[in-house]
């Protein structure tokens, strides 16, 4: 019997529920005014078709019919890319580890405390991943403490920690709030933030989360919103480029000037070398 691929016919990892996956692709391209922040979200339902790991990192598994099934690594439930090097999902299970391994994660941020699934600790340790666990209560039970969100944000917004996966139980509420705050920090429009939250939380979007994201005060993060910094940086970069160019032009002129003088330099008047074909006054 030959191999057959069951990936396309089984878009969800075993043990994860189909209802958790967004039903349609979510493209948030162009949501943001700042093109430097335009992101292409590939939520779970559409992820496999765009999964670069599908071909390169397939593994095989024997089943009881004696068939050998080629299985591409499966992402965790509600998995998606948030931005370059930053990913979100529900709680990874054992069958998701090969996929996570392919992301070469440097950091995992877990937003809930509970007994770790089978092999999770070993997976994290063997891949030398820094594991940050935050004991966040369910968001319908209590507001996320300001200090906790600030600490989480400091980790998930720092590219030095990337590639980074942030996850909770189902990748809906806690993760939705953390990603929403990150979007706010990156100065996304509130409507886009809410749309993204709902794309992952529906049909269980919570009013408490929507209120949290709507009311969230960026000042509580104690940092300048990044988009402002980026725009400032871009302006400084433009000014810097202008001055560099101007400096090069001036330098070139200074170098060329003596050469030009040399070329048009009048002959030595005192010279009386033979062969001169014009007299000097
Ligand atoms: O139906 P409900 O509103 O009672 O919520 C249930 C459960 O729903 P279910 O029973 O239909 O599965 C939620 O799961 P989903 O809505 O994500 O499917 C779960 O949210 P969760 O997974 O932690 O959320 P994430 O932060 O991981 O995204 C929530 O836990 P808490 O948030 O800690 O309160 C649970 O509340 P409870 O039973 O009181 O502990």
Q: What's this model, at a glance?
A:
It contains nine helices and eight strands. With 281 residues, the chain is α/β, with parallel strands linked by helices.
Blueprint (SSEs and pairs):
Elements: E1 4-5, H1 44-47, H2 53-56, E2 59-62, E3 68-71, E4 80-83, E5 86-89, H3 97-102, E6 107-110, H4 120-126, E7 130-133, H5 146-156, E8 164-167, H6 173-185, H7 190-201, H8 207-215, H9 226-264
Parallel strand pairs: 1-3, 5-8, 6-7, 6-8
Antiparallel strand pairs: 2-3, 4-5
Helix pairs in contact: 6-7, 6-8
Bound molecules: the ligand O=P(O)(O)O[C@H]1[C@@H](OP(=O)(O)O)[C@H](OP(=O)(O)O)[C@@H](OP(=O)(O)OP(=O)(O)O)[C@H](OP(=O)(O)O)[C@H]1OP(=O)(O)O.
Ligand I7P is lined by residues 138, 140-141, 168-174, 204.
């Amino acid at each position: 019997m030959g191999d057959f691929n069951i990936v396309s016919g089984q878009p969800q990892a075993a043990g994860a529920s189909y209802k958790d996956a967004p039903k349609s692709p979510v493209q948030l391209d162009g949501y943001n005014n700042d093109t430097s922040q335009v992101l292409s979200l590939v939520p779970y339902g559409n992820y496999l078709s765009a999964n670069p790991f599908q071909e390169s990192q397939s593994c095989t598994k024997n089943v009881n019919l004696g068939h050998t099934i080629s299985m591409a690594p499966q992402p965790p439930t509600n998995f998606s890319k948030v931005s370059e090097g930053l990913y979100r999902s529900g709680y990874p299970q054992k069958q998701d580890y090969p996929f996570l391994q392919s992301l070469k994660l440097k950091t995992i941020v877990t937003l809930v405390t509970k007994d770790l699934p089978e092999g999770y600790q070993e997976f994290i340790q063997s891949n030398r991943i820094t594991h940050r666990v935050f004991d966040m209560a369910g968001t319908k039970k209590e507001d996320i403490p300001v200090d906790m969100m600030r600490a989480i944000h400091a980790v998930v917004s720092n590219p030095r920690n990337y590639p980074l996966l942030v996850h909770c139980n189902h990748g809906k509420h806690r993760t939705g709030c953390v990603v929403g705050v990150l979007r706010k920090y990156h100065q996304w429009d509130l409507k886009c933030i809410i749309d993204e939250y709902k794309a992952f939380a529906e049909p269980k979007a919570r009013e408490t989360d929507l209120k949290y994201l709507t009311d969230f005060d960026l000042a509580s993060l104690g940092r300048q919103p990044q988009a402002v910094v980026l725009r400032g940086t871009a302006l400084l970069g433009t000014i810097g480029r202008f001055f560099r160019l101007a400096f090069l032009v001036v330098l070139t002129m200074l170098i060329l000037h003596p050469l030009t003088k040399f070329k048009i330099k009048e002959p030595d008047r005192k010279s009386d070398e033979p062969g001169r074909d014009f007299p000097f006054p």
